[in-house]
Write a structure and sequence with these properties.
The complex is a heterodimer of chains A (60) and B (208). Chain A is α+β, with helices and mostly antiparallel strands and 60 residues long. Chain A has three helices and two strands. A two-stranded antiparallel ribbon of chain A has the order 1-2. The radius of gyration of chain A is 20 Å and the shape is flat. The complex binds protoporphyrin IX containing FE. The site of protoporphyrin IX containing FE has 27 residues of chain B, from helix 4, helix 6, helix 7 and helix 9.
Chain lengths: 60, 208
């Protein structure tokens, strides 16, 4: 349990959230990070080789 | 009963239509075209898997109720499972949506697939929102008191009152999930009926 709480303390949730202010754009840091992760996942999905792809191409 | 009469029965017609559009080998195909072996195609089924987890954890929350999910550690766990599968659901759905947008996957008579996707997205946003205001904690209190002004300003507040916990909970656990699951079923069946959209080069008949 002590280990669990020390992990929980890694991200302090009892403070005010962090916000990014960029002109007309106001976004919480958490939401911004999620959007960046989605973009990374999208680009990775396009470029990472899919396992078994070459094998299947040959049999086509 | 004559053959003509049997042919005219709605059950006969329905069966013929259903099996005509979706014979078993099309409903659960053994192979997919080569272009489907890309990670971008994994996000649709990830969304589907996450949705199943959302529904499953939601059912467990409904069985035990708010006191349980607020006060016991297993309740917290199932509550967190519900929240995090929703996070994965939206994450995967949006990457899926981007993928389909840039493939123009509505081509070739697939508009209903795209449109059911769009409406599922909207229903999911509504489900998430009514879920946030149904938590029965300070968070939901804050969110609903913030949201009421916006929603009341549109006039929708006269039938959709975000401060009415009973109503919000009903929307969250009955109406909207029902809509989302129904739409998702049509969405996925449409993909099976139409087959996965070919890349632009294949469509134009160019060789690789
Ligand atoms: C509950 C949310 C959703 C689920 C569970 C879901 C699931 C799926 C699955 C399993 C497929 C087939 C595999 C694939 O191509 O990835 C698919 C295809 C497709 N999805 Fe979704 N989807 C969802 C939301 C959306 C949204 C929001 C859009 C766009 C607005 C969308 C547009 C499409 C299109 C156009 C196809 C057809 C692709 C083709 O024919 O090649 N979907 N979806």
């Amino acid at each position: 349990m002590a280990y669990f709480w020390s992990l929980a303390a890694l991200i302090p949730l009892n403070n005010y959230g962090h916000y990014i202010h960029w002109g007309v754009i106001d976004i919480s840091l958490a939401n911004f990070i999620v959007i960046v992760l989605m973009i990374i996942a999208f680009i990775a999905a396009l470029f990472l080789p899919f396992p078994g792809r070459s094998r299947r191409k040959e049999s086509r | 009963m004559s053959t003509a009469e049997i042919e005219r029965q709605w059950t006969t017609r329905l069966r013929k239509r259903a099996t005509g559009h979706l014979p078993p080998e099309k409903l659960l195909p053994d192979t997919q075209p080569a272009y489907v072996s890309s990670w971008i195609y994994v996000f649709g089924v990830t969304t589907l898997a996450a949705l199943m987890l959302v529904i499953l954890s939601g059912i467990i929350l409904a069985i035990r109720g708010p006191q349980w999910w607020h006060s016991s550690s297993i309740g917290h766990f199932v509550n967190s499972t519900h929240l995090w599968s929703v996070e994965i659901f939206f994450f995967a759905m949006i990457v899926h949506l981007w993928g389909k947008f840039f493939m123009a996957a509505w081509r070739g008579g697939r508009s209903l697939t795209w449109v059911t996707g769009v409406v599922t997205f909207l229903a999911s946003v509504g489900t998430a929102f009514t879920g946030y205001v149904s938590q029965t904690n300070f968070d939901s209190q804050w969110i609903s008191t913030q949201a009421k002004d916006g929603i009341n300003a549109t006039g929708a507040g006269s039938i959709f009152n975000v401060l009415n916990l009973g109503q919000m909970l009903m929307w969250h656990i009955v109406l909207l999930p029902l809509a989302a699951v129904l739409l998702t079923t049509i969405h996925v069946l449409m993909v099976r009926v139409k087959g996965v959209v070919p890349p632009f080069e294949e469509q134009n008949g160019a060789t690789k």
